[in-house]
Amino acid sequence: xxxxxxxxxxxxxxxxxxxxxxxxxxxxxxxxxxxxxxxxxxxxxxxxxxxxxxxxxxxxxxxxxxxxxxxxxxxxxxxxxxxxxxxxxxxxxxxxxxxxxxxxxxxxxxxxxxxxxxxxxxxxxxxxxxxxxxxxxxxxxxxxxxxxxxxxxxxxxxxxxxxxxxxxxxxxxxxxxxxxxxxxxxxxxxxxxxxxxxxxxxxxxxxxxxxxxxxxxxxxxxxxxxxxxxxxxxxxxxxxxxxxxxxxxxxxxxxxxxxxxxxxxxx
Length: 267
Known about the structure:
CATH class: Alpha Beta
Helix content: 25-40%
């Protein structure tokens, strides 16, 4: 895997971008070509920021929640979602909701924030953005997920890492197993961020793990706090190092997502 070094020079993401219109077209064409997944749209009143929602089965009852693209300078997550959807062999009884591009206006601009300057992943209490209000209304209070995965990227990181958030210590968790799996498949070809502190938090071999109860007083809730506290016992935020070329980042996120889904399906 090749590091570009461009992010450090820019002090931000400087890699390949996502063509939003082409992405929407590819997604729509693929959905039309099969019968398991359905495509709907949120926030349709604003053409700049309409959000695709891809669902299979009765996703509000023990389904799997997948989201990406809430930051417009993190394109690999959205493309990994599309790769997953196109290649995943859906088993009988499977149910899920996939939100592959939550911030289309920011993705068009290549900015972390949406086109109104809001970091949407800090608004799951404040609900400033129309996109977040539409998403929260769509999920509804009755939903319960057996797994939630958020696909992100980090322009500063020198390796892959993840946040594992849980309600109870006894919850079955796969974060450490996932990191070991990635290393067993690709060895040193997949860099893991082994820093003892990542993003200001204690980490061990690429894993930042903690209880949601320890974070609830934070006012600027990200999506993971909202989903974990109300709808899902354990959530995972995957972070690929965006200074790598785009293709291996897509592969890395898609591989990690598939591993977590396989583990939940088997257990």
